[in-house]
Amino acid sequence: MKSPDRLQPADYRAFVAALKATGFRGEASVASSDRVVLATDNSIYQLLPDAVAWPLDEDDLVRIARLIEEPRFHDIVLRPRGGGTGTNGQSLGNGLMVDCSRHMTAILEINAEEGWVRVQPGVIKDQLNAALKPLGLFFAPELSTSSRATLGGMISTDACGQGSCVYGKTSNHVLNLRAVLVGGEVLETRRAALDPTVGGRSGEILACLDDISSSQADLITARFPKLNRSLTGYDLAHIREGETIDPVAVLCGSEGTLGLIAQARLRVLPIPKAASLILIFYSDFQSALRDAREIAVLGATSVETIDSRVLGLAREEPTFSAVAHLFPQAIAQGVNIVEFTDDDPKALEARVATLLAQLAALPARLVMTVARGREVELVWGLRKTAVGLLGRAGGEKRPIPFVEDCAVPPENLEPFIAGFRAILDHEGLDYGMFGHVDAGVLHVRPAIDLTDPAQEPLIRRITEAVVALAATHGGLLWGEHGKGVRSEFVPEVFGPLYPSLQRIKAAFDPRNQMNPGKIATPDNSPLWKIDEVAMRGQNDRTVPDDLRKVYTSAFGCNGNGACFNRTLDDVMCPSYKVTGDRRHSPKGRAGLVREWLRQGGPDGHADPQFEIEVKEAIEGCLSCGACTSQCPVRVDIPSIRAQFLDGFYRRHRRSLRDIALAHLEGLLPLAAKFRWGFNMMTDGPGTALMAAIGLTALPRMPRQARGLRWLKPSDIGNLDPKLDVVLIPDAFTQFFEPQIVADLEAVLARLQKRLWIAPYRPSGKARKVLGRLAGFARQARRQTESLRVIAATGVPLMGLEPPVTLSYRHDYPDDMPAVALPQDMLAPLIAALPEQASDISVRLLPHCSERVLGAAATAEWQIIFARLGIKLDTPATGCCGMAGMWGHEAVNREKSTSIFAHSWQAATGPGADVILATGFSCRCQTRHLTGANLQHPVSLLRRLLDMPIAIEGLKK
């Protein structure tokens, strides 16, 4: 199959060298790993760029644009990239990828009084709104990828989503742009009459736009569809207003084919003071669509629809428990989510009550619920995950985007979708549907396995059928997600106006160097076609089936980019946040491992330099596991890391540090007997040896607790399930914080329970992290067999350290007995105590392995302390940066410290009488970096239950 991933024989190494010589201040690379991670987006395509540049500022963009004007570099092409979440390959291709998301991320100015902001293109939409929220303002265009979508990318796609009938598209909020043109000239847009004195390329562009918008006015009016979404990109209909023109109309949605966005001034709006959602459930999906037409005219801010497949996947999300009461109908085949907003909360309530009464009188609805306050945000958050959730579907066939953003007049949506479903049913395909029914846009993702060559023709067959169907209903193939690889349909849609698009392209980019093959060409060169571009499935199928099964999670990554979230108090991927390097994200690592497998890495056939780069990215993973729950498709990088390292070290020698860490759990009982010697190694003369090995910031080992009740084989038969609790000791708490074990024993005694300590055995977690899978399997089997004997008595098992305890659930054999976290066991026991009063303030910082489980993981601690009169404050935090032994490795120490500064520095600061942390590594990191000693919740419980201590004593 023909592929445009090598259209020009240009020398990109020479171009990168010349670029650096111009004084380029950002970074530029031709390294294989940098290119591989940018070869995919959220589409079905995979195209390797020749080089990557991360400009520092506008001057760097000018340097790039000026250099490609030189005759020796006329064959160089640029591929501007935003957040990398495009669903149609908009930014993919050969050439130099220009990525502004790493450095050009500044909010330059906020003018709250006049209602506008000035930003660089790499600012993420959610970050802008977080900065605006204290001012009561927001940037209105909404989209499901707002946690990672850059404003430059939104402008280049003219993005929109939920609420577009009220707020419009991104272009409706762009006041002006600074765009760097081929040759290095900067075009600063404004709406004005044509000024004939303007020279250079800017003058040519303005003259071209003025002529087209004037001479083709009647044809533009007749040709452009009257849709909420209309045509994104080269929007001829909005160039002219009276005697004025504005290049923003063609730059918005141009997908990097005209220039490089350097800066944008955007309109921002007041945040509505109140919002409510009405959730309406239906017995069949078409009824939901029919009903949505009626609801849309009732003054709703937005009307969203999801089908039963998406709804079922949403129920599996950790966040679902907080809104489960709003989704009582498990049998529903569709649900409409209807939003109403108002600046008067009382008026809003009255409107909602009236609407509920009106809706209740109509048939076809199973049930209705109402979300208010914080629930509104939670429901919309769940809806935003729908795009990624569909990618989690099991089996080889995965729902994929290629015909997912058709737009039709809303009144035609229900029959259009009926026809769409008939097309997919005829092909025997499963699919999921969700979208913006008020705008006439429904996202449809058919499930296809593109690793099977026999299924590839479905892309062409379905697309052409849908294009024809959309046309019969007055609609378009692309209503929201841009054209990209689907540009082959542009000439047909624009018809006699397509030559005008070519004129515009020629004025901006006469040699076709800006994202060629997309939207329009300045000459007769071809546009890209949907089945003549390399697909990811074609690469994936070259990997043997057995390896694809071992690395299932890496191949499951659909590129949705949820791991590009840069919110510092969010748990998702701390290594990406601290580096800004997409190789150090779950998506990046999954892509690198897929390419390593394609090259024959497990057999030693991969390019040696590329393999080193893959290993560097893999070892940067903290194994925190956030991706296993926060990624919508559950990409499991810790497991991929373990598998990769296991294979890598079958062919390479392990370091002394690796060997030491692998045996640490097993050696700690011996170290406890000679703790003076151990402590000499951690903070005495032996620290130099530890540094030579590559270890640092190691904790001292205290004197071990005496008087604990250790379980012997002869005791097992006498255990009483009603009285006894068995603690499974972990290496960290047992040997470095034994007082917590003593505190737990005292708390349980106060609750009429007796604590036993199971015989200590290594959990094997360190070996799993290091990729010593055979050694981990042996340790896991021994621990499982030992604990099965104890569990057979019916006595409950408990673990103190969250990542180790949760590892028993997720990494151990299926016959491993259940091991509870302390809060799970203590909550019902504390509930039997009399209520107490307290005026102390307590802050709880859960380990990130608990955070990723959602609110349920900390709910029990809230219940426990509420019984004792304490309302826990649980601020949002990311990772503390220690992550077991990762932060103790000298190579990681600088990053570890920076990660702590992201959110834990503030969270462990003043403002609470007592600060609790459930994880040993979190307490260790805080003590090392701040000197503060955080308590385990069990230790505070002991002080509260053990004796009538004065409140002042707890505050010390």
Structure description:
The protein has 956 residues and is an alpha+beta fold. Helices cover 41% and strands 13% of the residues. The strands form seven sheets. It has a seven-stranded antiparallel beta sheet, sandwiched between helices. The protein has a five-stranded antiparallel beta sheet with strand order 5-6-13-8-9. Strands 1-2-4-3 form a four-stranded mixed beta sheet, with helices on one face. The N and C termini lie far apart (72 Å).
Q: Which terms summarize this structure?
A:
single chain, 956 residues, alpha+beta, 5-stranded antiparallel beta sheet, 27 strands, globular
| Adjacency order of strands in the biggest sheet | 18-15-17-16-20-21-19
Largest sheet: 7 strands, antiparallel
Based on CA atoms alone, the radius of gyration comes out at 30 Å
The pLDDT mean sits at 92
Specify the helix fraction band.
Answer: 40-55%
Structural class: alpha+beta
How many helices?
42
